[in-house]
Design brief:
Blueprint (H helix, E strand, L loop, with lengths): L5 E7 L4 E8 L4 E5 L2 E5 L4 E3 L1 H12 L3 E6 L8 E2 L1 H8 L3 E4 L2 H11 L14 E3 L4 E4 L2 E7 L8 E5 L2 E5 L19 H12 L6 E4 L13 E3 H7 L9 H12 L8 H8 L30
Parallel strand pairs: 3-6, 6-8, 8-9, 13-14
Antiparallel strand pairs: 1-2, 2-3, 4-5, 4-7, 10-11, 11-12, 12-13, 14-15
Amino acid sequence: MTLKPDVTAFFDPRTFSVQYVVVDPATRKCAIIDPVLDFDEKSGLTATTNADRILDFVRERGLNVEWILDTHPHADHFSAARYLKAKTGAPTAIGERVVDVQKLWKGIYNWPELAADGSQWDKLFAEGETFHVGAIPAKVLFSPGHTLASITYVIGDAAFVHDTLFMPDSGTARADFPGGNAARLWKSIQEILSLPDETRLFTGHDYQPGGREPKWESTVAEQKARNTHISKFPTEAEFVAVRQARDKTLPMPKLILHALQININGGRLPEPEANGKRYLKFPLDALEGANWG
């Protein structure tokens, strides 16, 4: 039995997001992680271009989708989990603390009818819970700080860390969203960096500093040695100070108020109204103190 899954990344340049198909080569079973449903905020159009690329890949290689996994409710793109479940029949999953994010944003959206119990997903993973992708063992690490619900999937020798660590030249993720906490992010990063040095780390975004080509894979050893935040600011106090100072300069993601309405509901678009059109509810002045950018 191999403990080394095959990992294929799908980069979305519109949102700088990285989606993954993680395959057990022995059984041809796979997991899809953090899939993107396309959305153009200027026109209001949605599309399934990214998700269909993944479905084509799965079909062409004769893979069996065993899981559709999200690491957290995303603030910068819509989740395609619901669409992919309809196409593959595979169960959707996220960390169990998603209920905390649902309760927080249920209030922001004034959305009393939202079920804030995680029932929009087929599976809610608890901290430390184990599962399998094919025959490869997998484990869930609770990795909050960026959000209240962020988790890391450790599948064989590969860890999918999404918005905790970026590539070493990009540092770490912000911690100023509602429910974020820089000190808790530090603790989550330390837990990830306590994995074996050779563990492959796959991040969920790459913003291509200096215009370089997108990258998404590193190792624990590389991150400890070269991450621009971790290596230069090695104590919790130093890290928190730098993280908080940087976060104060960052504007909110352009899709945060669009995306959370979809993503706390498991990737479901709003139901059509009487005219057959779907509408997003957009709160004004909900994120007081945010940098206008």
